[in-house]
Design a protein that fits this description.
77% of the residues lie in helices and 0% in strands. The chain contains 14 helices and no strands.
Amino acid sequence: MKINRKSPEFLILLMTIGSAISWAVWLNLLNNFAIEEIDFTGAEMGILQSVREIPGFLAFTVIFVLAFIREQKLAYISLALLGIGIAITGFVETNMNFYLATIIMSTGFHYFETINGSLTLQWIEKDKTAEFLGRVIATRSAASIVSFSFVWLLYEQFHFSYLWLYLLGGGISVMIVLYCWQNFPLFPEKVSQTKKIILRKRYWLYYALQFMSGARRQIFVVFAGFLMVEKFNFSVAEISLLLLANAAINVFFAPKIGRLIQRFGERKSLIFEYVGLAFIFIGYAFVESGYFAVFLYIADHLFFSIAIALKTYFQKIADPADIASSAGVSFTINHIAAVFIPVVFGLIWLYSPSLVFLAGAGMACISLLLAFNMPSEPSSGNEVLLGKFS
């Protein structure tokens, strides 16, 4: 798939690079910065992650903003807000300021991801979406490789402070926004989008899988990295190398995963993903080797790439006019569990880290049961095998 440098596809990839670089810096430094500079324990980390997910829970409000701002412009504004929130993180010295900077960053991140996902499903043809989304993941991973490499180099070799690393990481998003604003036209909407909140009964399986995906994702995002630092004493440099290896593998595999989803379909792909994730979470629960933990971390992230299939499933069953509204609603549904899981499971972590990951395995099993209800060839009117609504 060749991409014109003035095309909507290239714009999506370029904005993805900006988001990925800034997010990678924040993610890379998070656990070490929280523990070393702010004296966080698992409980405070749970609170921070719950605060971070509040904007995701409120992602449905994007539809109200779209009544006044075009989606493409809102994507620019959101990406800039992400960068600003990350840039100011290095200045914080207290829990409360850390939470505030995180809310600013997270608002930009979740609005951007919502709009970027909506624009992708609107701009890319259905028969090319899975492959293009694989390319998006590969692009995000390649950008992350650059980010992780620079974090390692600047922190380990040149002894940059957290302050300067956060400033550089956030500033890149802002610069890319300025470039995109000046160099890309406003692309027309293929279908006029509904400017109100939409919940349709026939999308219920998609909503259920989104909810479970958000719940599972929190176990990985909040506690897998924390496990590496707390249990296996990984340093900033070691976390950088781990994320670097993870991203490099995704650069190679993500486009292939997209093509495999096109070949085998969403149902088989998601069933495979959920079986694999169940075993990976069980592995986390009982891991005693740092090397095996690294294997689980990389495998976990690779399996999550198969979630492309959930997006292409929705694209096939949805009314094209519902995509923007549904992007916000689905993001909110995805983040319902994210608001309380980090806090609740952060307290459980103090008692038994293994229980946290076993719960993640249980969530994967529930997702597996739901995936069996997906048709092999989903379409509008053929959304589920059981529980159809007219």
